[in-house]
Amino acid sequence: MLKQKEELEKITDKIRQLNAELEVKVEERTLILKEALQKLEESQQELSEALDKEKQLNEIKTRFVSMASHEFRTPLTTVLSSASLLSKYTGADDQEKRNKHILRIKNSVNNLNDILEDFLSLGKLNEGKIDKRIDEVNLKDVLVDTADEMKAITKKGQQIMLECSGDCYAFTDKKLFRNVLINLISNAIKFSEEGKAISIGAKVQDKRVLISVKDEGIGISNDDQQHLFSSFFRGANATNIQGTGLGLHIVKRYIDLLGGEVELKSKLNSGTIVNFSIPVD
């Protein structure tokens, strides 16, 4: 009887030992399974993100092709039709008609050039091929020269008013600064009606140059404003106005390169003001 009891205790201890070993193995297998599931979830997340990025890239490509084909087609059609009509106006009294079509061709070619410049600028930015050249720049001179240059594309009755407080000097890249101004002023002209004013202000404050470009144009809705610095985005009320949807995106990236900041304030049918600043040093 005693021997049977001892045998039973040995069997019981063996069972306990086997149970303990089994529990350890179960815990190990559970841990391995959890790690495997975690890695699987991470892989699924990475795959999902990759698919989302690919989808976004495909959408951007589609928008780019659609927008580019539309934007190029319009000025090219104008050039073709005006060039065809020019050949018909051969009389001495047809000079006014010839001048009209020559002007249309020039404007269309300038528009094509602007589109190409936007595409080239975006390509260089994405490839990191924009090199800054820092020099001491008289920003007031750049503002005056750029404003005078942009008067050539103003609509009837539009005026560009410039106010620069004091000497505006900064160590910056003159070309990038000028390109920012050209983009903002051309936008103000494009999205404003005839007879409206475009105001440009500049001043130095707290070792920063503060620039504002204000128009009295069509304005931008609150919903659209949050997307304006994205590439290829155009406001819902600007679809019938020529443009690539790249201007403000390029402006933002140029200002980032200059160590600056930019903000936009707008209201539908009440105009837009873009404020940006760059460091003096």
Outline the structure in words:
By secondary structure, the protein is an alpha+beta fold. The chain folds into two domains: 129 residues, Signal transduction histidine kinase, dimerisation/phosphotransfer (DHp) domain (Helix Hairpins, Orthogonal Bundle), CATH 1.10.287.130; 145 residues, Heat Shock Protein 90. The protein is 57% helix and 16% strand. It contains six helices and seven strands, in the order H-H-E-H-E-E-H-E-E-H-H-E-E. Strands 2-4-5-7-6 form a five-stranded mixed β-sheet, with helices on one face. Helix 1 runs antiparallel to helix 2. It is elongated and about 135 Å long. The mean pLDDT is 81.
Summarize this entry quickly.
With 281 residues, this protein is α+β, with helices and mostly antiparallel strands. The chain has 6 helices and 7 strands; from the N terminus they run ααβαββαββααββ. The strands form 2 sheets. A 5-stranded mixed sheet has the order 2-4-5-7-6, with helices on one face. The chain has a two-stranded antiparallel ribbon with strand order 1-3.
Search tags:
alpha+beta; 6 helices; 16% strand; 281 residues; single chain; two-stranded antiparallel ribbon; 57% helix; Helix Hairpins
